[in-house]
# Entry
Amino acid sequence: MDDLYRENILEHYKRPHHWGELESPDMEFFDTNPLCGDELKVQIRVEDGKVADVAFSGHGCAISQAAASMTSDEVVGMTLSELRELDRSFVLELLGIDISATRLKCALLSLKVLKSAGLVTDRAVGTRRVYRLNPAGMAALRDQLETFWNRALDGYQDVVEQPNEERS
# Structure
């Protein structure tokens, strides 16, 4: 069964859905995973309080890019409230394979940028502009993102590589 999921991940990595940029996004957010160099930007167009279109751009490992493609398929039609309520199980179920602690941030980067876009520009819906946060807003967002990562990584331990001779 894992082989089917792995094939699906590779298919989304090679031929990502909703890839590119939107002409007039209502919401936009960019973030990185400094552990492995993944970069991802999401742009969202909202109509009637729902995600009408979404686009991703960036680069990174197969897990991060496939997760972005898979989540983009699922969020179109969601309300902004539903988008903000998504959690790590949403992405992990889409991927369908066990994700190691070292790859978890790769898998969850798309969720992080989607939720952040909803947090940053919620008041910008319908204005067809991307808002920038002032320093106080940025501090609040940083706190919310830290809470997000703490909840997302709850129960995962950092994996420390052992030298070859000590591996079993």
Notes: The longest strand covers residues 38-47. The helical segments are 2-14, 62-75, 80-85, 88-95, 101-120, 135-152. The CA atoms of residues 28 and 149 lie 20 Å apart.
